[in-house]
Amino acid sequence: MIASATPSIGTSPILAVENVHAGYGDVTVLRGVTLEVGPEEVIAVLGANGAGKTTLLRAIAGILTPNQGEIRIFGESTRGVAAHELTRRGIGHVPSGRELFPELSVEDNIMLGALSASRDRRQALRRRVLSLFPAVADLLSRPAGRLSGGEQQMVAIGRALMTDPRILLLDEPSTGLAPKVVSMLFESLGWLIREEGLTVLLVEQNAKLALTIADRAYVLEQGRCDLSGRAADIAGDPRVIAAYLGYGRIVLAGGAGIEPVAEGPPGFEPGTDGL
Ligand code: ATP
User: Fold this and answer.
1) Paired strand residues for 249
2) Ligand 1 centre from 223 Cα, in Å?
3) Which atom from ligand 1 is nearest to the alpha carbon of 23?
4) How far apart are CA 211 and CA 93, in angstroms?
5) Of 24, 40, 124, 161, whose CB count within 10 A is highest?
6) Is 119 exposed, middle or buried (CB count within 10 Å of its CB: 0-12, 13-18, 19+)?
7) Which is the closest atom of ligand 1 to the Cα of 49?
8) What span, in angstroms and rounded, lies between the C-alpha atoms of 5 and 114?
9) What domains lie within the chain, and their CATH numbers?
10) What is the C-alpha to C-alpha distance for residues 170 and 1, in angstroms, rounded to an integer?
């Protein structure tokens, strides 16, 4: 069953977004977003183009100040806290478009994530990033601007991991990447989630992909997240299928993958029940 309100996560959330309104100047984008992310949860936020997914992550990361509502990290309000201080408190942000420094080397881009860490800590974090993305080890001296999209995405995630985040905000990591590269990237993320219990808030237009990796999901529509629930339930919701998943139904098998089937669930008529 799909909950219409935020499902209880049964423990203190790492991140709580409460009735947040935010936008740009006179343009209101978020109109009362409420969501929670518990320890070691992977939460997906789905939504159409322009729904406000990036805006939501920017507000959580402290790049954008909400006009109304509250964002709490480990129970403490982030109001008035600078983005770099939120990074220190455990928010790692991989922005859409990656935002690397194109002239700087891959090594410098990655190490920028850990400027304030001790030398030993920096080296330990660097080893972790290179073991997660071995391909990056061969690119360290190359300017980041000369990498492929997939390589840049690995560097952007690596830079965020260098901050040793308690929660990783991932903004459309699959955008513009070939399916093979996306699979590789999500395998690495899956490993981090399984082996290290990384907590993730994932924004994705590729709903199928997001729902294979997520525990729970929220659907952002008209500036609010009124539809939310377990990823498997969201994946089976006719409205979500119609709006985001196409005609195939996906079956989640213990998070192991997706299995497209030819027709939708009983009673479902494609294209008649949009969100
Ligand atoms: P997409 O999936 O296409 O990336 P999104 O869900 O991430 O979309 P946002 O990027 O958050 O959506 O944008 C939400 C709305 O805010 C859009 O209508 C967009 O045009 C508008 N917007 C985004 N950035 C700005 C800005 N800097 N100034 C004014 N409006 C903006």
Assistant:
1) 261
2) 11
3) 16
4) 20
5) 161
6) exposed
7) 3
8) 38
9) 10-90+167-173+200-275 (3.40.50.300)
10) 27
Contact 271, 242 (CB under 8 A): yes
| Residues sharing a CB contact under 8 Å with residue 228, sequence separation 6 or more, in sequence order | 2, 3, 4, 5, 6, 7, 35, 216, 217, 218, 219, 234
State the DSSP H helix or E strand holding residue 155, giving kind and residue range, or none if neither. Answer: helix 149-161
Mutate to test the pocket of ligand 1, among 27, 96, 175 (most ligand atoms within 8 A of CB): 27
Does the pTM of the predicted model rise above 0.90? Answer: no
Q: What pLDDT shows up at residue 10?
A: 59
Could you report the average pLDDT of every consecutive run of 10 residues in the chain (275 residues)?
A: 46 93 95 96 92 95 96 95 93 89 93 82 91 91 92 93 94 88 89 90 90 94 91 91 67 41 34 29
Give the residue, by CA position, lying nearest to ligand 1 atom 27: 24
Q: Are 215 and 231 a contacting pair, CB within 8 Å?
A: yes
